[in-house]
Amino acid sequence: MSWISRLLGSRQRAAATVDEESGDYPDLAEFVDLAQKIARTQARQGLRMEEIESKLEAGFSDLRGMIETAGLASASSLSFDECFDAMDGLEEAARLAPDEAHAQGIRAVSGRLERFLKQAGFERLADTGEVPDARQFRVVGTEACDALAAGKVLRVVRAAIGRQGKLVREGEVIVSMRSA
Known about the structure:
By secondary structure, the protein is of the alpha+beta class.
């Protein structure tokens, strides 16, 4: 019987294996050997854990470097987010403008802001009349529209933003549905 089974077994069975004269377990060498194996295993696991932690930290460091190289560091990303939101607001204002003269003025401002963002390497993805790409847009609502096929983008609530072929910000759209 091993020391583990004696340890985890009932007290009566463990007591039966004790040498009555010396009071020692007969397999003390086995116990010491097993304790050493456990200590070595714990040491190996500790080293492995340190190795994994260092690889993870190196990965985060690389990721931070790529973000900074791409110009998406937290401070600059926040300022561009404000620009993206401003463009979305301008698009909505142009759509709701009381007359065409106001709408044209708002679109001119929006166009200048869009050129600025293109020079910074950003691309605004906002195609209406198409089926929304699930990798770029999230559908946030539906509106009845018989002029457009069901499931097509009727209105862009928040444009998706891409940079260097990668999605920087997910867009939000409202899709059309046929009136019942």
